[in-house]
Design goal:
Number of strands: 0
Oligomer: single chain
Number of helices: 4
Helix content: over 70%
Keywords: Membrane, Transmembrane, Transmembrane helix
Transmembrane segments: 7-25, 31-50, 81-100, 106-126
Pfam family, one: DUF2178
InterPro entries: DUF2178_TM (IPR019235)
Largest sheet: none
Strand content: under 5%
Distance between the termini: 28 Å
Structural class: mainly alpha
Number of domains: 2
Order of helices and strands: HHHH
Protein name: DUF2178 domain-containing protein
Radius of gyration: 19 Å
């Protein structure tokens, strides 16, 4: 077991606990405690699951990280970045020529979801292609 995996487990647990605390305490300075707490819990649980999967694969003797995995991640990141730049440019142009009074929270949430879904989609697509 690598120290990186143990560190990710600890950080994931801390992030998830912060999310639970935000959701329970509902501080007044946070606009949306449920959404913020949920985001922290989700990120923490994701880190924990990824760490546990990595540890289990290493115990079986499977190579978790190699040059192929890094190359696939680079290609998926580049394609995701390209799509986000185009989407953000279109959004800026749309907001620049219209008089809509749009809240930032839904837009940022949507861009975050698009980022995560497009990266995961491209990662698995490139993984099958290579």
């Amino acid at each position: 077991m690598q120290t990186k995996d143990i560190g990710m487990l600890i950080i994931g647990t801390i992030i998830a606990l912060i999310g639970v605390a935000i959701h329970i305490l509902e501080p007044g300075w946070i606009i949306n405690p449920s959404g913020t707490g949920g985001a922290f819990v989700g990120a923490g649980v994701a880190l924990i699951v990824i760490s546990i999967r990595s540890i289990r694969l290493q115990k079986k003797g499977t190579v978790v990280e190699d040059e192929r995995i890094f190359h696939i991640a680079e290609k998926a990141s580049h394609k995701t970045l390209t799509i986000l730049i185009i989407l953000e440019g279109l959004l800026m142009a749309f907001l620049g020529v219209t008089a809509f009074d749009i809240q930032a929270y839904p837009i940022v949430s949507l861009l975050f979801a698009i980022t995560m879904l497009s990266y995961a989609g491209f990662y698995y697509w490139y993984k099958r292609q290579m």
